[in-house]
Every structure is written in structure tokens, then in C-alpha cells.
Amino acid sequence: MHARPPEVVSSDPKLQMMRWDDVFVGTCDGVVIDEPRGSSGFGYDPVFYLPGEGMTFGELPPARKSEISHRGRAVRAAADALLKGRRG
Questions:
Q1: What CATH number does residue 37 fall under?
Q2: pTM higher than 0.90 for the full model?
Q3: H helices present in 1-88, as ranges
Q4: Which of 2, 8, 59, 70 could be disulfide-bonded to 38 (CB atoms 3.0-4.6 Å)?
């Protein structure tokens, strides 16, 4: 395993349409591995290894990926702010 610690930040274009100035960030810690594993997802999913899960995003069930992904976390932070009537 070649450990290159990436930093992935997600911003959802749908949220930008709300014209909020706030940025909602989601992060997910992992490492990029040399050999792809799994066939789920897209892009870097098969090479983004999550030590806490013991597998790559490409191996995770879609529901679990949504729970822990940087995109899922960013969207939930924005949804929480909307529901609470506040911004970032």
C-alpha cells in the first residue's frame, strides 16, 4: 500500500444555487492505494482506502459510503443548517 494522505473537500453545486455565502465542508480520512479494489462507485473510489472500514470506497455498500463520504457529510451539514434556520 502506497500511503499518500489526500485531502478531499466537497462542495455540492445544488447548494450553491441557494446563494448562500457559507461553505459546508465534509472530510473523510483515508489513503490512496496502488491497486484498485472493488467495483462500486466511480472515480477514485476503488483506490481510496479507509483504514477504519478496512476497505476502499469501491468495496463499501452504497448506503455506508453515503454515511461516511465527504460529500455526504457536507450535504448533511448544510441540511442541518437549513433545518435549524441558520447558516454555516
A1: 3.90.950.10
A2: no
A3: 13-16, 62-68, 70-84
A4: 59
